[in-house]
TrEMBL record, chain A:
This is Leucine-, isoleucine-, valine-, threonine-, and alanine-binding protein. It comes from the Bacteria. The keyword Amino-acid biosynthesis does not apply. CDD domains: PBP1_ABC_LivK_ligand_binding-like (cd06347). The gene is braC_1. Residues 1-22 form the signal peptide. Pfam families: Peripla_BP_6. GO terms for biological process: amino acid transport. Coiled coil: none annotated. Belongs to the leucine-binding protein family. Residues 42-388 form the Leucine-binding protein domain.
From TrEMBL, chain B:
It is found in: Cell membrane. Keywords: Amino-acid transport, Cell inner membrane, Cell membrane, Membrane, Transmembrane, Transmembrane helix, Transport. It is a multi-pass membrane protein. One of its GO terms (cellular component) is plasma membrane. One of its GO terms (molecular function) is L-valine transmembrane transporter activity. It comes from the Bacteria. Belongs to the binding-protein-dependent transport system permease family. LivHM subfamily. PANTHER family: BRANCHED-CHAIN AMINO ACID TRANSPORT SYSTEM PERMEASE PROTEIN LIVH, HIGH-AFFINITY BRANCHED-CHAIN AMINO ACID TRANSPORT SYSTEM PERMEASE PROTEIN LIVH. The chain crosses the membrane at residues 12-32, 63-84, 93-115, 135-164, 194-216, 231-260, 272-290. This is High-affinity branched-chain amino acid transport system permease protein LivH.
């Protein structure tokens, strides 16, 4: 009897220890300064990202670069003349409801002065009410839908929401221009995700711009998030004589679509957007060979000769062992911009940081030089990436003309 | 015409996977009149066992199949022993609800243990090449994997027919399905027979899981839900409880879905599939191959 009791006790202690450890793992370096937002020597910044789940590579890479940037900033003396930035990282599991509760936890429990993330449009939209209600600025790194910074119902700018990536429309405009001018496409087919605002938005703008530039949309089809079999649509596209396929979707689906298209002998160029950016793309596409003649619009390219870009690529590679993708680049820029805004604000208070972010002019990041327009969107160049042997290479950079 | 033939090939491949999963549903239903909703999730477990075998144990794909089949058979038997056997004499609804519970347990347990990350079998796990085939003068594309899927499905169906018709275990299964009490009186070990049925059904689910993982190049813990549901519809369309019915239903559903997506719209696919299910249940409730016999009183 006594022995079994002791075992139960040991088990309980172990369980407690494990759950404590798990708690620590979730919020990196979350000790110390809780409850004092700007008073102490540390400034809490919330980092709400997709570290597991459907788009885990987006969130993980962004988070890695954010932590790298904050480390660099802290090692150079921090912000506001010696204060250290304390990033608090939480995982939203690529789910909207989680994203919302993570944002709420960061704001109410960790008293963060600003929020970074999430990476995707849907998850960011879920976190927006939390930021707005608590009057804490939220800077998203890669949510490209226009509705992020402008409320679609009231048409008013959301005061506390900013982004560092370009929005969807210029991305689709540049894509259409590239398709017509560089690829010589005349008959395009579009395959988009009907359950995803990002994908639908790109589809609409691309269709409009491609037609405006003299092209013809010969077929279009939508799919649902969980669809696996794209062969029926692709067979139809092939039959319609498409000489380009535009696929504004996320890498997991893109990989399957590319591999199934190539399998059906549909070897026309395929074009996409920044949702393609993932080192896992080649894996899901069934090998690098299938990615021949595929392109996508993106925020930056690691092969850009710009010394600022190369310094970042080197530092990231040294720390994490892989080449940083655009999500990492945007995360890096967002962290630096936030630190810059805190310095410009002169104090680590949400309202002052919000004001400083809105006034951003000619900020030099690795994803280009940017200024914020009145809608809290950066104005900057868009890179077109070609996948050569599965590797991303900078094809060209285009400044969006209209919109 | 080329497009039409290609769509038929697309449909046949999708249909074979449905058929393969439907075989498991049908077997279990045929024996104990239980719709084993956990079947699709056993498939997921099979896909992951195969993935772990290939990636971490560095085994080749055939050993992966073997391991997946072995562990899923065991899992099927355990599920039956723990979750279904205690309810065997309870109303059928109780067992059905338990099946849904087991399904949710496997899905969420899978999410917990495996995480929500999407994985894919490493390139070259199976040598998948395109075979340009000319059919009646029209070129179409078929891959080796599609042929393997079709061949495996047909082979498994024939194997199952053989077991059910010509072996002792099959004879016992038929007896139990006809009248389990009478079978017990005749000295048939009903519990063991049911265990064998679950082991076989789950083994097929494991095979389907790996093939599905290879065909779509990705696996994730919720991958079994939709194919499981579709295969259930296929089994009902063909006539649940009938082995050839599962095949006919699976192929019919796969081709039907592909045609709706290919010639109409993907948005219409699922509504039409379930409309088809409702129509079959209204017009010919026993399924395409089923004989309607009056309920015994």
């Amino acid at each position: 009897m006594g022995k079994s009791k002791r075992i139960t006790l040991i088990a309980l202690v172990l369980l407690l220890a494990v759950s404590l450890l798990a708690g620590c793992g979730q919020g990196q370096k979350s000790g110390g300064q809780q409850g004092t937002a700007s008073g102490g020597n540390e400034i809490n910044i919330g980092v709400n990202y997709e570290l597991t789940g459907k788009v885990a590579t987006y969130g993980t890479n962004t988070k890695n670069a954010i932590l790298l940037a904050f480390e660099e900033i802290n090692s150079k003396g921090g912000v506001l003349g010696g204060k250290k930035i304390n990033p608090i990282v939480l995982d939203n599991g690529s789910k909207q409801e989680e994203s919302m509760s993570v944002a709420a936890k960061l704001v109410t429990e960790n008293k963060v002065v600003a929020l970074l993330g999430p990476a995707t449009t849907g998850n960011t939209l879920a976190a927006i009410p939390v930021a707005t209600d608590n009057k804490v600025p939220l800077l998203t790194t890669s949510a490209t839908n226009p509705d992020i910074t402008v409320d679609p119902q009231t048409k008013k700018v959301r005061d506390y929401i900013f982004r560092i990536c370009f929005t969807d429309p210029p991305q689709a405009i540049v894509g259409a221009e590239f398709a017509v001018k560089d690829l010589g496409a005349k008959k395009a087919a579009i395959l988009y995700d009907n359950t995803n605002d990002y994908s639908k938005g790109l589809y609409q703008v691309f269709k409009q711009e491609f037609t405006k530039r003299g092209g013809q949309i010969v077929a279009e089809e939508s799919f649902n998030q969980d669809d696996q079999d794209f062969r029926p649509f692709l067979t139809r596209f092939k039959n319609a004589g498409a000489d380009l396929i535009y696929v504004p979707a996320y890498y997991e689906q893109v990989g399957k679509i590319v591999s199934q298209a190539r399998e059906l002998g549909l070897n026309v160029p395929m074009l996409g957007a920044d949702g393609w950016d993932s080192p896992k793309l080649a894996e899901f596409a069934g090998g690098a060979a299938n990615l021949k003649d595929t392109y996508f619009t993106n925020h930056y390219s690691a092969s850009d000769p710009n010394p600022k870009v190369q310094a970042f690529v080197k530092a990231y590679k040294e720390k994490y062992g892989t080449e940083p993708d655009a999500f990492a680049a945007l995360g890096y820029d967002a962290a630096y911009l936030l630190a810059d805004a805190i310095n410009r604000a002169g104090k680590a208070e949400p309202e002052a940081i919000r004001q400083a972010l809105a006034e951003t002019k000619n900020f030099e990041g690795v994803t280009g030089k940017m200024s914020f327009d009145s809608n809290h969107n950066p104005v900057k160049e868009i890179a077109i990436i070609a996948l050569v042997d599965g590797k991303q290479t900078l094809k060209t950079k285009i400044q969006p003309t209209s919109n | 015409m080329a497009a039409f033939l290609q769509q038929i090939i697309n449909g046949l491949s999708l249909g074979s996977i449905y058929a393969l999963i439907a075989l498991g549903y049908t077997m279990v239903y045929g024996i104990i009149q239980l719709i084993n909703f956990a079947h699709g999730d056993i498939l997921m477990v099979g896909a992951y066992v195969g993935f772990l075998a290939v990636v971490y144990l560095k085994l080749n794909i055939w050993w992966a199949f073997f391991l997946a089949v072995a562990s899923c058979s065991l899992l099927g038997v355990i599920i039956e022993r723990i979750a279904y056997r205690p309810l065997r004499n309870a109303p059928r609804l109780a067992a059905l609800i338990t099946a849904i519970g087991v399904s949710l347990l496997l899905e969420n347990g899978g999410l917990m243990v495996l995480g929500t990350d999407i994985r894919s079998y490493p390139a070259g796990t199976i040598n998948n090449v395109q075979l340009p085939i000319t059919l009646m003068g029209i070129p179409i594309t078929v891959t080796t994997l599609q042929i393997i899927i079709l061949a495996v499905t047909i082979a498994i169906m024939l194997f199952l027919q053989y077991i059910v018709r010509y072996t002792w275990a099959g004879k016992a299964m038929r007896a139990v399905s006809y009248d389990s009490d009478a079978a017990r009186l005749m000295g048939i070990n009903v519990d063991n027979t049911i265990s064998v049925t679950f082991a076989l059904g789950s083994a097929f689910a494991a095979v389907a899981g790996i093939l599905l993982g290879l065909y779509y190049n990705t696996i994730q813990p919720l991958m079994g839900i939709m194919p499981g549901l579709k295969a259930f519809v296929a089994a009902v369309i063909g006539g649940i409880g009938l082995i050839p019915g599962a095949m006919v239903g699976g192929f019919a559903l796969g081709i039907f879905e592909t045609m709706v997506s290919g010639y109409w719209s993907s948005k219409m696919r699922d509504p039409i599939v379930f409309l088809l299910l409702i129509l079959i249940l209204l017009i010919k409730p026993a399924g395409l191959l089923g004989k309607s016999n009056t309920e015994k009183v």
